[in-house]
Each structure stands twice: as structure tokens, then as C-alpha cells.
Amino acid sequence: MAGGAVGYVGYDCVRYFEPKTARPMKDVLKVPESLFMLYDSIVAFDRFYGIIKVISYVQVPEGQDDKGLEEAYAEAGRTIDRLVDVLESPEVVLPKQEPIQLGQEYTSNIGRDGYEAHVTKLKEHIVAGDIIQAVPSQRFARPTNLHPFNIYRHLRTVNPSPYLFYVDCKDFQLVGASPELLVKSEEGRIITHPIAGTVKRGATPEDDERLADELRSSLKDRAEHVMLVDLARNDVNRVADP
């Protein structure tokens, strides 16, 4: 019994759900396609309400008697007390950071020519009716000696997105900041909020309002948003009852 699973499902796993997308792939990153870690003790920080909840699940072996159950409950309570002591400690241990090496160059996994070739191929598939929409992508990489957790801390400052994450998978770390939620399951409901259409911020509140009106009235952006909502609805319908 565990309190929750934390992890990820990589984009390349789409071939397990959409077999038509399967093709030979080079394992460049050398990390699992998907990974989930189960935890029996959790510190949950609700930033909206400013509340911290410390949770420890009671481990109850099969066939346990009342005395064993009481001891398991007491052990969970002791675990919570230990975690609270750590949280209340005035000493905050941060990872050691060596001087940062600047001037490193980014490299793309496919380059400009490869990316443009992807776009051309996708256009052909759209004209042929194979697909109605696609998002071509490329991966940029650069060496750095900045600790992953410090990258996360900087992201919190320069890009405080609603969905920030730092996941330590021991051999590698995941760090990210996303403005949108892909999908959420809550109390028997599946929730998704596709985002489409963007515009730069204005210099004044009046400019912001004008640009927002232009975005709302844009036929192109509205069509893109409707398309994303329709795609999301179709995917949800595969696993849920309306």
C-alpha cells in the first residue's frame, strides 16, 4: 500500500496507445520511457491556501490483529512527527553549487534542415487526410554544471508557472514549468483545459485588454482552440462516460 505515485510517461510512449505512430527510435537519452515511484509518506504543500499537510499511510500486513494495527498506526504517527521536526528545523540544506560555466552552446537533435523536413512531411500528411493537426518539435541540449534543483529554484523566480515540478529519479532529474494542465482526474471526473492562441503582453493594462480582445476575435486562434478541444474530447471519450 502506498500513498501515491509520482513519475512521468514520456512522449515516445504514444506508440503504445497509437500503434500507427510506431517507428524505430534511437535511445539517445538513456532514461526509462516511463517511470513511477510509490511513496508511503508525503508532505503536501497547498500554495493556494498556504497549508502544509504531512501524510503517512498506515502499513497493515494481511491478517494483522488489533494490537498490530495499533502499532502500525503509532509508527505512522512517529513518522509524521519526524517529518514535522525536519520541516520546523531552521537549517535549510541546499545542494552545493560550483561556479557556473557560462558561454555553452545549445545544439538541436535534428537541426534546422531536419526540422523543416519534418514540417514539409507533416503538410503532406495533412493534405493526404492522414492527420488534421501536428506539433513538430526538436530537442535542444547544452552542457551545464548548474545543479538541477537550483535550475528549479531559478524557474520559480523567473517563470512562476502554475505547474512547476522537480522530480529526482536518482540517476537523472526532471525539471519543468508548464502554464497548462494536460489532464486531471478528480472525484470521478476527468478535466482538461487545452490552451491555444497566444499574444505578447502589452506595455500598459489598456494594451493588454486590446490585445486580449484581438485574440478572442481571431478566427485563426479560435479555430485552433476548437480543434484542440475537439481532440481532447475524443481522447477523453475513449476512457470515460459522458
Automatic annotation (TrEMBL):
It comes from the Eukaryota. InterPro entries: ADC_synthase (IPR005801), Anth_synth_I-like (IPR019999), Anth_synth_I_N (IPR006805), Chorismate_C (IPR015890). Residues 113-240 form the Chorismate-utilising enzyme C-terminal domain. One of its GO terms (biological process) is L-tryptophan biosynthetic process. Residues 2-48 form the Anthranilate synthase component I N-terminal domain. PANTHER family: AMINOBENZOATE/ANTHRANILATE SYNTHASE (PTHR11236), ANTHRANILATE SYNTHASE COMPONENT 1 (PTHR11236:SF9). This is Chorismate-utilising enzyme C-terminal domain-containing protein.
